[in-house]
## 1
Amino acid sequence: MTDQSEVTAPTGDAASEAGPTEWHSGIGAPVGVGPWLDERGAPLPDDPRYDPELLAEGDRRNVVDAYRYWTREAIVADLDTRRHRLHVAIENWGHDANIGTVVRTANAFLAGGVHIVGRRRWNRRGAMVTDRYQHLYHHDDVAGLIAWAREHGLTVVAVDNTPGSVRLEETELPENCLLLFGQEGPGVTDEASSAAALTVSIAQFGSTRSINAGVAAGIVMHAWISRHADLGEAW
């Protein structure tokens, strides 16, 4: 049976949960801001969106300045009011190391969700903690993903440079869209390609046969953003 449950992130923003971007590398100034009183010199805010611990100790998380000192739950709630009708899926049959990069990019472009097809476990390091703010879904197989997409009115677009694909640069991506990527090496499986409404490829001009899956995901997501997003809402 296909598991389509949403994966919820752990709650809380305690320093003990620090992720790979919440540190000082020793090069340049520390990431983020220090304690509220040191930074603002003003009374502590009583807005419930703010985290008392972050106000007292500072906020070194990988978040934009507009969300400094906010709780994780408040950030997710605010993002949920603005998420795009763009979803991204990646097949994970062999623990693809690119999944973290896809999640991080999907977060940057405020995708509605990221779907992992196949193995549930994946290396989160490449996500740079952005998975805490992104809705993640798991599907045991391609059939489950396609059923979910149809139920939610999303057109499935596979991304691969296979025969029969159309050029991304000459194609209008649908607004209600689920972009489907294969894992590094074999690309999109035949089952996924057959189930997709269309397959797009990225124009290449060099000697390599393919583009890294994480990079390809960024290129196609940005193509969707360029056409359908309100750029006036970008940070």
## 2
Amino acid sequence: MTYRLSGDEVDLPGLFSDLVRCETRLYNALNDRLRARHGIVTSQFEFLRFLRDHPGARVADIAAEFAIGVGATSKSADRLEKQGWIVRQPNPSDRRSSLLALTDDGSRLVDAAERTFTDGLATLMGDTLDGPSVAATAHALSQLRAALERNQIGTPTG
């Protein structure tokens, strides 16, 4: 079924299906590369990269960024801590929460894995899309994500 958006006919259910299936296939392909080269999976890489770029983040901050539950995020943090890639530090402004930080091993891992991740995305997208198409897609998805986050749409309740 098509819908008229700003004068253009768009198959919104088809667009949704394409978005979800592309995300799943890209995620799985990157998962395989990261696991083979670095012994981590995509979700671990994203968690570590977020901590690198947001030092002192709390579990709740990571849960909000990835729109996942706090419990699942805390369990992920436990697994990364057990691997020696992150540490929990006391939060001086809230004793009920901890601040998360990368260890030196975690920092080295995320930096090495980032090249694999980025090169993998460039290959997977570059084989199909040209630069202007990727840029337009990135811009459109960024706008959509910002609107969803601004309006707190799709935020987990638990």
## 3
Amino acid sequence: MSTHLAEPADLVGLIGQTVGITEPYYLTQSQINRFADATGDHQWIHTDVERAAQGPFGGTIAHGYLTLALTPLVLAEVLTIDNVTAALNYGLNRVRFPAPVLAGSPVRATVAVTGAEQKPGGVEEVFGLTFTVDGAERPACIADVVVLYR
């Protein structure tokens, strides 16, 4: 499911609606290791495959922030807006990581419009993102992501 809009102002009319659900993404151990290198977070639950296999999750898990870092990819997959000169990451209102993402698990994101406001600098959009792992009881990440479209 994907949404195509003629201009950023059209987002205002989509408050409360889901704009798309992504195909599954698979966070590989290689991606997890590279994220650990980039951030300095080498905690064994992320990078030590043998030790993590005996740990609380039965394997390595992706960093929560790695899951959240899929946001630009997710938004590009589910939403196309014409006549945009720039889309700026403006911030986050709320982020939670209720459940782990095991390395190699299929992760999907549902994107909803939870707020939109025309401002002098463009349209400030709040997207409600819910990342889920197929078959898991709880979501892996819930985030309110703010983007400013010019």
## 4
Amino acid sequence: MLRAVDTSMLSTARSADEPPLTTPRDPAREAARRELSKRMYHENDPSWFQRALNAFWDWVDKLFNAASSATPGGALGLVVVIAAVVLVVGALWWRLGTPRRGPASSAALFDDRPRSAADHRAAAEAHAAQGHWNQAVQERMRAIVRSLEERALLDIRPGRTADEAAAEAGRALPTHGDRLRSAARDFDDVTYGGRAATEQSYHRIAELDRDLERSKPVLTNSTSSASSTSDSHSADHNARRGAAE
């Protein structure tokens, strides 16, 4: 009995002195990778969108830190510079409006649908009643030009622009030349410049339309005839005076 116990104790002592079981490095790494790739370890991982968002904000943070380190005053100085740039851009945008895609008078005043001046006025009033000032300004300017064409003060030309119409009409109605050019600019700003018309701008063009209806054109032939008659009378008077002397 004593001998059996001694044998058991010696066996236990020998097993304690032996080195533990070891696994080579590469198989151990592979086993760990397989274990950690299991779904149970990744249930709370962020989504791909969250990872991309985090990467973006990290990039912004690095960019901001780099810019603030190069700006006098640090982060506060950078914020002041950015605010100043935003204010300048906003002021220019408000003052100049949306950049034009091309020259203001690069497109025709009318489309391919021939309508009378009365039709354009009715369309303008309908838009104005609904507060659609852009369309109201456009239609009222078209009414002005169509009315001048109907009165034979302008020749009918489909490709005419607002600026051209104002310049040609200003020669026949010189007292309204400035207002015609101003109305053409309003039309171009709304149609091609991206600006918004106002109620006041529409009423200015509508008043111009009414004034033009009551205006009489300056006839070039009549002016020339009057000038020729005056010159003839002056020549006759000088001739009679010379004969008397």
